[in-house]
Amino acid sequence: MAEQLAGLADDRALLGRTSTAKRVSDILRSRIAEGYFPPGTRLSEDSIGGALGVSRNTLREAFRLLTHERLLVHELNRGVFVRVLTVEDVEDIYRTRALVECAVVRGLGEPPYPLDRLAEAVDEGRRAAREDDWKGLGTANIHFHRELVALAGSERTDELMRSVFAELRLAFHVVDDPRRLHEPYLVRNRQILRALQAGNRAEAEELLTVYLDDSLERVVEVYRRRVGEDAAGVG
After folding, report:
1. How many helices (H) and strands (E) would you count in the chain?
2. Are 220 and 90 in contact (CB under 8 A)?
3. Beta strands in the chain (DSSP E)
4. What is the pLDDT of residues 133-179, one digit of tens each?
5. Which residues, in sequence order, are CB contacts of 55 under 8 Å at separation 6+?
6. Could you tell me the pTM of the whole model?
């Protein structure tokens, strides 16, 4: 926890002079998504408030916002914890992804499309794979899908999916073999990018649909196994 709080203290500068619960929640959301606070972690008001230099009331409001986003959960007389997802949560996340991401591709209009940032996410994934950084590859994959959603040019859609992708990372954090989970999708990201570069929305949407179906199946398979193992360990 000390190392996590030291990293969090580095984010204090991001608050600037207009410190708000929204800014604090943005920082904590990013830290949760990056795995600084894994699922099940209890978040200490005193420690985090001290690291960020914010009041207890501000921090509680940030916690409330993230609880509304389903990233945190408040347990009576115990405190605030990073949420542990259920299999049903994971399935719902993927339903939302399919609805939004496929709709974004379908509604792109006529090419050419602004794909520079999407291509950068593919390159980020290639670098991570070359360095055997499989968690980094998972991050690059999420960046790819975030930039895909950004092609819609909608702040509301970006905000919605920012929370969805943060929830998705909660599921990724329980996976014991990130290479097996993430590596197959590096090639698929390139295929979707190439289809969009060629102006073929229909092909890109078809590739994306199969991609999300396969990813859901793989994540749920791993998640069910880990949840079962945890339950057996408790027994």
Report:
1. 12, 3
2. yes
3. 42-43, 72-75, 79-82
4. 998 999 999 999 999 999 999 999 999 999 899 899 888 887 778 89
5. 49
6. 0.83
